[in-house]
Every structure is written in structure tokens, then in C-alpha cells.
Amino acid sequence: MNLRFLIAWLALWLMAAGGCAEGPKVLTDSDPSAQFSAFRTFALSGMTDRGYEVGPSDHSPLRGRIKEMVDEQLVAKGLQQVNVEDRPDLLIHIFFGVKEQHRVETTDMTPGLYPGIYPGRYPGVYPGLYPYQVKAYDYHDGDWVPASTRVVTAHEDHEGTLIVDLADSSKKKLVWRAVIRAVLGDNLEQNFESANKGIAEAFKNYPRAK
Predict the structure, then answer these.
(1) C-alpha distances in angstroms, 114 versus 73, 119, 131, 178?
(2) Per the domain annotation, does 174 fall within a domain?
(3) Torsion angle, CA of 26/24/93/206, rounded to 10 degrees?
């Protein structure tokens, strides 16, 4: 799997065309009993990248950029980033995932307009005065019959999923989760932009510290 597809996630619900990823799809949920106003500090506890545990000291530039996006949102909510050893109020865990998706697209081709020719009953064209719509024919059982203009195209997409979990460190309890999904394109920076957009959208539903 190419590293560019690591930006998978976005935790964004599906996308891709012409090398560009579609916008992310975002879901969030939270514990209604959690006192979010009491959370003042946060720290990364770890990451899980496609099933493999990664420690908070990970130096991957790709995962690091996603972590920075999450950090920015929490700081904007009034929280302070600290080290895990400083006993933060919130512990962050980030999950990355990528999976292949196969889809089939069926398209009916629209006949084109060609000026100055006239279709006959049999193969061949004849001079004419007016344009006509081109139709496709197949030779079958001694006659020419209309042929299907339907085109079936198979696509293989890479769907990325990013999950951000926030847990109350004192209770070891999950209090907030964001799931962002998207179909990834071939352009790394566009995938990062999509991830950032999805993360920002998710944190709109996170209560600001008071």
C-alpha cells in the first residue's frame, strides 16, 4: 500500500475522481454525562495504524501531520497540550485505516450529432442536407440490429477512515469519538486537506472548555 493512502481516513465516507478525493463524511458521539468543562489538558496516548499499535513518540511525518490537526482543534477549544507523564485530563488515541472498495459504473452513451450525412437501412452513409444522431448497429442473423450503447466501467477506490478517541484519564473512560471517512485520491496534499476539513468539522461538535 502506498504511503499516500495512509491519509486514508478521512475518516471521510467516500470519494475519488480525476486524482482528487471527495469531501469527508463525519460522525461524532459523546458521553452525555461527561463534564467537558472540567477538561483542561490533553496528551496523545498512542495511535493504531491499520491494526498496528504506534506509541506517542512516533516520528512518522504522515501520522504527525494528522496529530497536529487534532492538537490544533483541541487548543482552539481552550485546552492545553502536555506530556502523558503530566497526567492530562484527556488522553487522545488516533486510529488510521484503509480498505479497498470495488464499484461498477454503468453509463448509457448519448449518440452524437454528425452534420451532412444520412444513415441508410444498410451499412454505409449517404450525402445529406441535415444532421442526424449516430446509432450503433450489430450484424446478427443476416440483418443489422441496434446495438447497446451501455458502457460498464469497474473502479477500485481506497477508502480511508480516521477515528479520534478522547478518554477521561482519571476514569479511563471514552467520552468523545469522531469518525471521518473518505475515498482517497492520488494527490497526497489533497488527501491531507480533506483530512483537515473532516477533523475541523468533527470538532465543531466538541464542547468548548469554560
Answers:
(1) 57, 11, 5, 54
(2) yes
(3) -40
| Domain assignment of residue 121, given as a range | 110-148
Q: Are residues 92 and 133 in the same domain?
A: no
* Pairing label, strands 150-168, 90-108: antiparallel
Q: Residue 1 CB: number of other CB atoms within 10 A?
A: 10
Neighbours of 81 (CB within 10 A): 15
Q: In the structure grid, which three cell numbers stand for residue 108, read together?
A: 448509457
The CATH number of the domain holding residue 77 is 3.30.160.670
Amino acid at 13: W
Question: For the purposes of burial, counting CB atoms within 10 Å of the CB of 72, is it exposed (0-12), middle (13-18) or buried (19 or more)?
Answer: middle
**pLDDT tens-digit profile of 93-122?**
999 988 765 555 666 555 444 444 444 444
CB contact set of 3 (below 8 Å; sequence gap of 6+): 62
Q: What angle is formed at CA 102 by the lines to CA 21 and CA 136, rounded to 5 degrees?
A: 95
10 shares its domain with 44: yes
45 and 127 within one domain: no
129, exposed or middle or buried, with CB in 10 Å at 0-12, 13-18, 19+? exposed
- pTM of this prediction exceeds 0.70: no
Query: What's the rounded Cα separation, in Å, for the pair 175 and 66?
Result: 20
